[in-house]
Design goal:
The chain has about 525 residues and is an alpha/beta fold. Helices cover about 35% and strands about 20% of the residues. It has 15 helices and 20 strands. Strands 1, 2, 9, 10, 11, 12 and 20 form a seven-stranded mixed β-sheet that branches. The chain has a seven-stranded mixed β-sheet with strand order 7-6-15-16-17-14-18. Strand 3 and strand 4 form a beta hairpin. Helix 4 runs antiparallel to helix 7. The longest helix is centred in the N-terminal third of the chain and has 19 residues. It is globular.
Length: about 525
């Protein structure tokens, strides 16, 4: 255990030290900086954003993760990315996408989720006319959840005094939201819908962003996604997803904060059981009043595949052991980044697609294929005469471990070519029109993103009651907080942005820097 005795409090140079510059960590840092806190971010890589970042190759700007972005609306309280940027004097120019997703499903089941809600619902009812009432009931329940979320400035549910203020502002919304906390989307869907094929569609509607079927997906998360895609819409940030992280960093620095790249944190330093600093791989020690881990819960407290967590096992709270029993890591991804000839993309192609050949393969290794073509929205991401294709499919790191270098390269080529052949169902002759190609494996994600097993995030290891078991930002260790997708409310950029707001609020309460009035 990394301990230090009798550390002089005057040497605590920072109010908060954030480990990692994923979007959850950056929103936490930006919110704290906007309140006047002195913040330091330590990032092991050379660019910010983590899986919400971008990288450049030969004139192409590729998104590391998904290009389907929520949280950029211009009204209500759920547009968290818009609000986070504004709070540090920044703004992203965005390009609205008329379609969230085009589904290509078994049995020639095809449907697009249009930005206009009624257009989408009408299409779904035309496919399942006998389930008209059930469709309207289920998606209306999603709107009920969303309307509760969007009507109040809910930033933290760990601060009783703050919750009282929110309750008096929006009592009905608070009570309505509390009702949905222990409920999963599958429970609600099966209450109103009986057609097995339509229930499978609800499953893939959840899986496309939660990597879980509906019976494991919290209803609050489903309500947020299924409604915000029509309310705030899917809006792509001009310049690539990584521009969000870059602008947050700019805002933090303008307010006196600092980010240090190529600064790998090896251990959290404790004094009499309290987190007071971090130790870097180069031996440097840095001290602060509060420590925030934007690493996964496993990389922070240990777990499968983690040999050297930030917190040693002899100080890890028992509550973290309980969490590791309840949740497991979801698969990572096999990712394909392509530059292709502009003429290879058929006209009127949508930006985002999901392909599934068999319902039985939905949760299988490389069963679902996700496809994004962000240059359909922002042509500046690629050289003239070309498009970007980003395709990815769930893949377990277990399938990639123990390979020799020769075997590993051969598997990357084989699996990459196999993924290209799947895409040719939508983009004929794709393989003949590739100008640039990069293949990333779960090992790539683990190496560059420092995520346990390269995982997308936590999923329940057994059926759990909605969001109730998800841990919050405060840990049982004094001075140590967590943020990101292994905190309430889970995965997705808007969800981790919420965790960042919540983390900054509870720390702001500790530091005495929160404003009394609720956000406007």
């Amino acid at each position: 255990m990394t301990q230090i005795q009798n550390k002089n409090k005057a040497t605590c140079d920072w109010d908060s030290i954030v480990i990692g510059s994923g979007l959850g960590g950056l929103v936490t840092a930006s919110q704290l900086a906007s309140k006047g806190a002195k913040v330091l971010i330590l990032e092991q890589y050379k660019i910010p954003g983590g899986s919400g970042g971008s990288f450049k190759r030969k004139g192409y700007t590729f998104d590391v993760g998904a290009s389907m972005i929520f949280g950029f609306g211009n009204k209500g309280y759920t547009n968290l990315l818009t609000r986070a940027l504004k709070d540090v004097g920044q703004e992203c120019e965005t390009i609205p996408d008329p379609t969230q997703l085009a589904y290509h499903l078994p049995g020639q089941f095809e449907i697009t989720v249009d930005r206009d809600y009624q257009t989408f619902i009408t299409k779904l009812i035309n496919l399942f006319p006998h389930e008209e009432k059930g469709i309207n009931h289920f998606y209306q329940k999603c709107w009920d959840v969303f309307n509760c979320l969007d009507s109040m400035p809910l930033l933290s549910i760990e601060d009783p005094a703050y919750l009282i203020k929110v309750f008096f502002k929006s009592p009905l919304s608070c009570l309505g939201l509390a009702r949905w906390l222990p409920v999963n989307a599958g429970d609600v869907a099966r209450r109103y819908i009986k057609d097995p094929d339509l229930l499978k569609f609800i499953d893939i509607e959840c899986f496309c962003w939660s990597v879980m079927p509906a019976n494991l997906t919290p209803m609050i998360n489903a309500g947020m996604v299924f409604s915000d895609r029509h309310y705030g819409g899917i809006n792509y940030p001009k310049g690539g997803v990584g521009i969000i992280a870059e602008k947050l960093v700019n805002g933090i620095e303008n307010l006196g904060g600092e980010i240090r790249y190529k600064s790998k944190v090896k251990k959290i330093i404790f004094d009499q059981g309290q987190a007071i600093g971090v130790s870097l791989a180069n031996g440097e020690e840095i001290f602060g009043k509060t420590i925030i881990s934007n690493a996964t819960r496993w990389d922070t407290f240990g777990g499968k595949g983690v040999d050297d967590p930030l917190v040693d096992t002899d100080i890890t709270p028992s509550s973290e052991t309980k969490w590791k029993r309840r949740y497991t890591s979801s698969p990572s991804f096999l990712s394909l980044h392509l530059g292709v000839d502009v003429g290879s993309i058929p006209s009127k192609t949508h930006c985002h697609h999901l392909l599934l050949d068999s319902w039985e393969e939905m949760e299988s290794e490389q069963g679902v294929t996700f496809l994004s073509i962000p240059t359909l929205l922002d042509p500046t991401l690629a050289p003239a005469g070309s498009h970007i294709i980003h395709a990815f499919t769930p893949s377990s790191i277990d399938c990639w471990e123990g390979l020799s270098n020769k075997e590993y390269l051969a598997k990357k080529k084989y699996d990459g070519d196999k993924l290209i052949s799947k895409l040719e169902k939508l983009i004929p002759n794709l393989s003949q029109n590739i100008l640039h190609k990069e293949v990333g494996s779960p090992r790539t994600h683990k190496r560059f993103l420092s995520r346990n097993e390269g995982s997308y995030g936590p999923i329940p290891s057994t059926r759990l009651p909605g969001l109730l078991p998800m841990p919050f930002n405060t840990t049982k260790i004094k001075g140590l907080y967590c943020v990101g997708d292994s905190c309430f409310p889970g995965q997705g950029l808007n969800a981790v942005a919420f965790s960042g707001y919540a983390c900054a609020h509870i720390i702001g309460t500790k530091l005495g820097i929160n404003k009394w009035e609720l956000p406007g």
